[in-house]
Amino acid sequence: MKKCHSSSSYSNYEAVIASLMFLGIGYAVFSTTESIYLKIISIIIPILLIILIVLYRRKKTFDIFFNEDKILVDYFIIKEKHEIAYKDLLEITYISAHKSPIMNRIKFRKNKSIKSLKFTSVVYSDEYISFIKWLKSKNENIEISVFPSDNMMNHKIQEVYGFNYRKILKKTL
Asked: What is the pTM of this model?
């Protein structure tokens, strides 16, 4: 199978929109107040919030590569690279929410703790089934989940792996 690639940079657009909203609110407060102290505060607070958003997003923006022997996570803004062995991969989740891009989330073990990464889907539709098969060939213990559970991808995975491909929690009274 060829190398698969995805990214988490989708949410940078959301950060830009939030920053513009903070600037708009700051400008509205700045233009309506007469006090010099309130004008200074209405400028400083949005700028500090934007700086915090930028600092947070640079640690959450990465490219992910599914290579033949390992998963490579490249945080290109902070110049860091992490490797994840397929044996450490615990779960992959297909997330299809209304009016947002299709996402994947992986959970993996790193230094005796469980980490999670969320990114745009690696592949779509029927190619996702072949991607799951390929991942299962690397690690049979990977759990597969679909959110929401009534999504069409859930039915496609059930056609391949049956109804018991995921753990079903029983609720008792």
From this structure: 0.74
Q: What is the pLDDT of residues 91-120, one digit of tens each?
A: 999 888 877 788 889 999 998 899 999 888
Contact between 49 and 36 under an 8 Å Cβ cutoff? The reply is: no
User: Are 69 and 50 part of one and the same domain?
Assistant: no
* 82 part of a folded domain: yes
Rg, Å, the chain Cα set:
21
State the first-to-last Cα distance of the chain, in angstroms, to the nearest integer.
47
- Identify which has the larger pLDDT, 171 or 117: 117
Q: What distances in angstroms separate CA 10 from CA 7, 61, 101, 120, 136, one per listed residue?
A: 7, 9, 8, 7, 27
Q: How confident is the model at residue 1 (pLDDT cuts 50, 70, 90)?
A: very low
Q: What is the CATH number of the domain that holds 120?
A: 2.30.29
Amino acid at site 113:
S
Average pLDDT over residues 54-69: 86
Q: How far apart are CA 83 and CA 87, in angstroms?
A: 12
Range of the domain at 33: 9-59
Does some domain include residue 173? Answer: no
Which of 37, 69, 163, 61 lies closest to 117, judged by CA? 61
